């Protein structure tokens, strides 16, 4: 008889699976499913990420679970943003240990065996505007804010009163050369989609400073 770990190795996409998926794989009722999950988690072959969500330990995967991919399974709809996106794009020098995402739903945080995850509600009319799908190989991918979108989300989440490029450079330590990479089309994509007036003022001020 196969263990849950053996079944998940065969069937779990990216090594990530839900309780509902496991129930579809296994013949039997809740008692058997609960016993298999308990055994797999107890042996640390499987990690419980949050309620109803699991992932295989790296011992049973060719490549470890990518935390950036995992984030969208934990709480969605969402996309990687704020400091996590800025760090990934190489726009800020500091290492980022919490995976931070923008969310349509209320803000929440999760402590998991793969590290902390934070989800911040960012009200906007076009949630995925300025968001790109990042391919990681093997059919794997995750959604991430483009740099300007990540900056706008940061201003929204922290209620910043920024109206120029100066605080982006001074507070976030974003290099001027990176800001110079922004195009007029990047601003066109975002202007008017954020409900927060301070974000609109930030985008307008930054665009004016960069002459975009």
Largest sheet: 4 strands, mixed
Q: What global shape is seen? A: elongated
**Total discrete domains:** 2
Taken in chain order, the helices and strands follow as HEHHEEHEHEEEEEHHHHH
Helix and strand composition category: alpha+beta
- Trace the largest sheet across and list its strands: 4-5-7-6
Average pLDDT, to the nearest integer? Answer: 93
Q: How are the SSEs ordered, and which strands pair?
A:
Blueprint: H1 4-11, E1 16-18, H2 19-25, H3 30-42, E2 46-50, E3 53-56, H4 67-74, E4 78-80, H5 82-88, E5 99-103, E6 108-112, E7 115-121, E8 131-137, E9 140-145, H6 147-157, H7 166-170, H8 176-179, H9 184-190, H10 197-210
Helix pairs in contact: 5-6, 6-10
Summarize the structure.
Helices cover 40% and strands 21% of the residues.
Describe the protein's architecture and organization.
- The protein is of the alpha+beta class.
- It folds into 2 domains: 4-60, no CATH class; 67-210, no CATH class.
- The chain is built from 10 helices and 9 strands.
- The protein has helices at residues 4-11, 19-25, 30-42, 67-74, 82-88, 147-157, 166-170, 176-179, 184-190, 197-210; strands at residues 16-18, 46-50, 53-56, 78-80, 99-103, 108-112, 115-121, 131-137, 140-145.
- The strands form 3 sheets. The protein has a 4-stranded mixed β-sheet, with helices on both faces. Strands 1-3-2 form a 3-stranded antiparallel β-sheet. A two-stranded antiparallel ribbon has the order 8-9.
- Helix 5 runs antiparallel to helix 6 and helix 6 packs across helix 10.
- 33% of the residues are buried.
- The model has no long low-confidence stretch (mean pLDDT 93).
């Amino acid at each position: 008889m196969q263990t849950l770990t053996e079944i998940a190795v065969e069937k779990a996409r990216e090594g990530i699976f839900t309780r509902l998926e496991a129930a579809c794989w296994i013949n039997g009722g809740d008692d058997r499913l609960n016993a298999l999950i308990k055994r797999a988690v107890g042996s640390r072959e499987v990690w419980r990420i949050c309620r109803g969500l699991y992932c295989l330990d790296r011992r049973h995967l060719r490549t470890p679970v990518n935390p950036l991919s995992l984030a969208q399974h934990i709480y969605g709809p969402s996309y990687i943003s704020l400091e996590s996106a800025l760090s990934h794009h190489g726009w800020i020098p500091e290492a980022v240990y919490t995976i931070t995402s923008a969310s349509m739903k209320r803000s929440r945080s999760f402590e998991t065996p793969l590290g902390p995850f934070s989800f911040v509600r960012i009200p906007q009319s076009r949630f995925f505007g300025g968001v790109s799908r990042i391919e990681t190989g093997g059919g794997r991918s995750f959604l991430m804010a483009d740099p300007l979108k990540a900056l706008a989300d940061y201003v929204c989440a922290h209620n910043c009163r920024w109206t120029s490029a100066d605080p982006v450079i001074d507070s976030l330590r974003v290099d001027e050369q990176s800001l110079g990479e922004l195009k007029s089309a990047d601003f066109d994509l975002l202007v008017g989609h954020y409900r927060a007036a301070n974000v609109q003022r930030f985008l307008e001020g930054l665009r004016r400073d960069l002459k975009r």
